[in-house]
Fungal-specific transcription factor domain-containing protein (Crucibulum laeve), 434 residues
Amino acid sequence: MDMSLEPYDFYETESYVDTLPYLDPVSSGSFVTYDHRTFGDPVNHYFNKVLGVQYLLGDKKTLFYIMTNSVYSPNPTACRKAVEMLSDVHIRRIQNPIQPALDSEAALKLKRIQTWLESQDSTDPDTAMAALHYISLYLFDGGSGAWEGFLKVAGKYVSKILYHGGYTSPLDALQSCSEKDAFVIKTVLWFDVLASITTQRPPYFFSAIDEMFSPSQVRIENEQSSMMNPMGCENIVLWALTKTSELSYWKKLQQARGSLSIPDLVKRAGMIEQYLEHSTSTIYDYDPSLAGFSADKAACSRYHASELFRTSALLFLRSVVSGNYPHVKEIKVAVHDTMACIRNIPPDAEIRRSVVRSTVFSFFICGSLTDDQRNLEYLGRILTHESGGESGVGNCNHIYALLCELWKKRDPNVPGPIEWRECLKQNDSQFLLV
């Protein structure tokens, strides 16, 4: 395939649909159920309609190159099947926004796929990429489901690259590896950290993230090692989220043993908080004073997403220290700052969609820990509006539904803690805040 071609515009045109090689979904063992005569080849549908909403803050050219490299690799089976099924879910959610695309039959099918991926070569980046596509499949269908098994498949490959890839350190691996490997690594690290908020266990890659992004170490970072692309999060904020998740786990262990030292807890939290108090994301070629008027919408979107992640990470940290009590002064301040960032998202439709759909963690923790119902209503309007263009695709509606459930359980006469993390686990399903 001629990779020198300019990629299509994710948002405005379908001009690229006929330039990609055709893969027969029948002979390739497709999992797709929709009528191809109506919607066309599922792989082309993926590149024209799905990829643009899968990683909203990523660089379009880079994403296009990486994904075509996987789907049209010498051994493309894993990724091809994954993008076909992702296209299927995308179309079914648009056709019927109320009805989940993944039923019990699909759950069994996905379990078989997971088992098959686990049996594949763990040194193959396209196996890991396929696993990430299946995580996106759950995210497109509302955000809950058995995504953790696919994260483990992708994590196995990342572990090999970081620790057994012949590099001098995890950071050296991230900076020196191929563009595709770097994407897989950063995506797995991101999912791993946000998944830990649901599982309430430290991130699997806690040590690697601490080594790569700790602000206490002086290092030279390159663009490839920046989490701003494709996640819209500063490295230091990802590090802070990782440390906060681990601190929460440490606190619970100490409480269970009856040995929790509050001064020690406050000291540990203070070492994290100092790096979250001020933004440094203006270094990413975006002038926030031009809010909404920047010619570079991608840079603008990443800036606003990074600010949301920073303020909500601070809110998360303070909730670990003080408990999930909305009336605590420090939590109220953090909620106020997060709401200010949300209200400051530019009105441009493309920027708003990119920021809102990429920062559902921030919306959820803010809506959970606010003590003002007007904030909840405002967040609800934004979340439901951003689901309107592709109603049913994504987890914005589900996020708002969970927030409403949490608020219904509140007793105004008994101002107790808000167990916002517990509600992310429902029966055998877990909700991923990505």
Observations:
- The chain has a mean pLDDT of 86.
- The first strand starts at residue 144 and ends at 145.
- Residues 266 and 321 are 7 Å apart (CA to CA).
- Residues 218-431 form one domain.
